[in-house]
Amino acid sequence: MDDDFEKGTGPRKFSYSDLVCSTNNFLEQEKLGQGGFGAVYRGFLKELDSYVPVKRISGGSKQGLREYASEWVWDLYGGGKLLEAADPRVNWNFDERRLERLVVVGLWCAHPDAKFRPSIRQVIQVLNFESPLPVLPSKLPMPTYFSPTVNASLPLPLSLGASISGEAQS
């Protein structure tokens, strides 16, 4: 991820003072939303002459760089802006359909819930235009975990020599 920052192909690093200035000291009226990392603010960066989202990562955030990068690409996918994931150094010299397939398949493979990930055969078929693109959620999905359920109609395993009432059998 640090290489991406330095190459200018990923999110950019700014000084904290620049971000404070761009968001009017993280003014509540500039807050766009709240996520797993913390709050997102609208900021104006003079050097880019543009409004940009600024994430202020909360101290209690348990998410790391990999989740941050994944969320960034999911946001591009959900916003219909996948082409913005392209390295700007290629100067738009790429096949847009292939880039779209590559990025969508990458998201599909990195789905946080393993049961929704594709097989290698599915990946190859989509990348070779033999199968349609999968339809993915517009936001980074959160993995779900289910507690095992106990079926009351099934007999419970008994320990050696114990009965259901807990009395020892002779």
Can you walk me through this structure?
GO terms for molecular function: ATP binding. Keywords: ATP-binding, Nucleotide-binding. ATP binds at residue 55. The protein is an alpha+beta fold and 170 residues long. Helix content is 29%, strand content 12%. It has helices at 2-7, 16-22, 65-78, 96-109, 120-127, and strands at residues 31-34, 38-45, 50-57. A hairpin with a 4-residue loop joins strand 2 and strand 3. It is globular.
- Overall 3D shape: globular
Summarize the helix and strand pattern as letters: HHEEEHHH
For the CA atoms, what is the radius of gyration?
Answer: 24 Å
Number of strands: 3
Specify the oligomeric state. Answer: single chain
**Alpha-beta classification:** alpha+beta
Total number of distinct structural domains: 2
Strand content is 5-15%
Widest sheet: strand order?
A: 1-2-3
Helix content: 25-40%
Q: State the end-to-end distance.
A: 67 Å
Task: Please tally the helical runs, counting DSSP H or I stretches of 4 or more residues.
Answer: 5
* Mean pLDDT value: 75
State the low-pLDDT regions, or none.
156-170
GO molecular function: ATP binding
Protein name: Protein kinase domain-containing protein
InterPro entries: Kinase-like_dom_sf, L-type_Lectin-RKs, Protein_kinase_ATP_BS
Organism: Hevea brasiliensis (Para rubber tree)
